[in-house]
Amino acid sequence: MKSLKDILFGVSLTAVSGSTSVSVNKICFDSRLVGAEDVFIAIRGTLTDGHKYIEKAISLGAKAIVCEEMPDTIVDGITYVEVDSGNKALAIMASNYYDNPSKNLKLVGITGTNGKTTVSSLLYQLFKKAGFKVGLISTIKIMVDDKTYKTSHTTPDALTINEHLHLMNIAGVEYCFMEVSSHGIHQKRTEGLVFEGAIFTNLTHDHLDYHKTFAEYRDTKKILFDNLPKKAFALTNIDDKNGLVMLQNTKARKFTYALKSYADYRAQILENQFNGQLLKIDGDEVWSKLIGDFNAYNMLAIYGAAHLLGLEKLEILRLLSELENVDGRFQYFISKERITAIVDYAHTPDALKNVLDTINTLRTGNENVITVVGCGGDRDKSKRPVMGHIASEMSNTAIFTSDNPRTEQPEVILEEIEAGVEPQNVRKILTIENREQAIKTACQLAQSNDIILIAGKGHETYQEIKGVRTDFDDYEIVQKILMNLNK
Ligand SMILES: CC(=O)N[C@H]1[C@@H](OP(=O)(O)OP(=O)(O)OC[C@H]2O[C@@H](n3ccc(=O)[nH]c3=O)[C@H](O)[C@@H]2O)O[C@H](CO)[C@@H](O)[C@@H]1O[C@H](C)C(=O)N[C@@H](C)C(=O)N[C@H](CCC(=O)O)C(=O)O
Ligand SMILES: Nc1ncnc2c1ncn2[C@@H]1O[C@H](COP(=O)(O)OP(=O)(O)OP(=O)(O)O)[C@@H](O)[C@H]1O
Question: Which GO terms describe its molecular function (predicted)?
């Protein structure tokens, strides 16, 4: 049990009814999970309003309620606390409840449209290899040093974040690398966390269903930098036109990285091959197993961050060359017929273009590129025709298929993707709704030396259709089909 007064420390209260000098069991923001003596926080969400469930929470045993508006009926013996923002209160209370765990380790936030998982996962790998106890909060998984936890978000809710940071404290973790999504910032999931540094990778088209305008999306990302403390570092990619915008109002120490512009950390790509690339970072050559210009940026961000966190430059370079690719990011398989299948999580126009650019620069002859791609349902619709355009323009054949249609009609999503195809590319496209069938067709069409790109789902091991998730793993499926192919 914890004192409600202590948990509320730092939360700005606009009204109180009842006593805050009570003890509560745990914090809950979903009435369905409330237990005896909990404090329930009512959050105004995108689908419903937590204020509707206050009575339900009390009937299940809640002893205290935190809300943005006092309910009409006040129940005797229950403490009600009114706050400006339920989301902000949740984050500060979660941090207090777990004894402010972000203060006991070095927390680095990574934000940007693409590259968050790659940069955070590789920083985790690098610091592990350097001998530290490390934590990771990413789209793929949460790691408390060597222990893996499942996750359903890029940036989880504030309770989940602080609970895992607390576990990291117990395990003696010194550094934690955490993806910070724009949804996470907007919903204040990271409010109250003490960051040692923040990294900005890039900003392109995504999530315009949620943020409405690109400026709003950019300004949301910028909040991570605006809120950094003075002693923290802010490291941004200034080849991206928003790299300097992120630094505009921060109090933190400012650092930049770039391949093209003048910056604190600079790199050059000397050689690019299928199995790796040779980079020159700060004057020294280093071999990276991860290929493509975008990974040169990722390696440079990792180099800069590791240096700012105190590692020696030469040690960082040695460790960079040992880093392994992240699951579902340019993960490839070469069949006995020498057909190459690449599974990549590219699910934004920019990421798709980058991966196809990389594949095209690696082509040595007249091998064909066959792209299998779709777009998720219930998410930013405006990127669908753009991705249709890129896939059909940059591949010899583009097969449009389902990604995770979620609750949308798959055929409607496919029509929206097709709408971006220019008349001269129409003959290059096929539409096959069933993803396994689409992958199979790509394998049947491919000849020796051809390259198949399966984009959009990367590491995911399920497909969500009409709200139901079934097992589905792009890499496993393409590998099986190619191994059983009789050409
Ligand atoms: C749009 C969005 O981000 N929604 C998130 C939000 O839920 P919401 O606002 O829809 O909540 P709601 O369903 O309206 O409910 C409002 C409140 O009432 C409560 N409630 C509801 C029903 C009930 O019976 N009782 C009850 O108390 C809910 O627990 C909630 O506190 O808050 C929830 C709790 O933190 C999140 O799980 C949920 O993420 C949904 C599932 C989601 O899909 N989010 C995605 C878009 C997301 O966050 N993605 C980003 C970025 C990924 C990327 O970069 O690609 C991420 O960080 O993962
Ligand atoms: N620095 C980068 N710039 C542009 N594209 C990148 C970069 N790094 C990775 N990508 C591409 O974007 C895809 C997604 O990469 P990654 O998972 O690291 O991004 P993310 O920001 O974590 O995305 P999400 O938040 O949706 O999980 C990769 O599979 C690759 O195609």
Answer: ATP binding; magnesium ion binding; UDP-N-acetylmuramoylalanyl-D-glutamate-2,6-diaminopimelate ligase activity
